[in-house]
Amino acid sequence: MTALDLYDEIGRGYSSQRRSDARIAARIWAALGDAHTILNVGAGAGSYEPPDREVTAVEPSAVMRAQRPADAAPCIDASAEALAFADGSFDAAMAVLSDHHWDDRPRGLRELRRVARERVVVFTWDPSFADAFWLTRDYLPGFKRLPGMSIEEIMQCIRGTRIEPVPIPHDCRDGFYHAYWRRPAAYLDEQVRAGISVFARLQDDECAHATRRLRLDLQTGAWMRRNAALLDLEEVDFGYRLLVGE
Known about the structure:
Blueprint: H1 3-10, H2 14-17, H3 22-31, E1 37-41, E2 54-58, H4 62-65, E3 75-76, E4 90-96, H5 105-115, E5 116-125, H6 134-138, H7 151-158, E6 162-165, E7 168-169, H8 190-194, H9 197-201, H10 204-220, H11 222-227, E8 235-236, E9 240-245
Parallel strand pairs: 1-2, 1-4, 2-3, 4-5
Antiparallel strand pairs: 5-9, 6-9, 7-8
């Protein structure tokens, strides 16, 4: 399944579950520095686009583009791997939790570097943290079989200069895969799962089995016995990283 196929399939209603979290947004916008013109690649419904900058968005899925607010940045139908802009066309290029869906991820990342004069900012996830999350470790081990890139490989593509950890707050507003780490019952909600691409990328029977096991463990208290320590934490580093190339 291509990235376009995936988001045309799961994108309907996506914006109801996937909204900017102000704390994460502040980190991303700070990483953009004083860049004024910004290209947002894999922009989706417009989350995390800074409102005080001149933003141009790129999004290949018509389903996702249709969910952008009326006052969102102008959005171009294009893919990360073939950006129709001259070298250095923007002060900065950014990608937020989208690069892992690109059909040719290294090429797309190099395109970000090509069109950015000053810096590239990528908010992504480090696969070396796969077993740090109870949902993967105990219920969805198939997540670890999905293709990915190491942080070092991504940094090489964007000519990265720094890596910033971004811990995930317990009440994260953006419903990505790790967002509900302290709210396990949320993963039993079909609408919540519909906004998380992992569930669309794995086999239906594996996801159904994981959901049944999680429901049972919540009912019996098994989840609580294994994960009670999490309930005292305000935020956890699950491997989300801001990568900046200047």
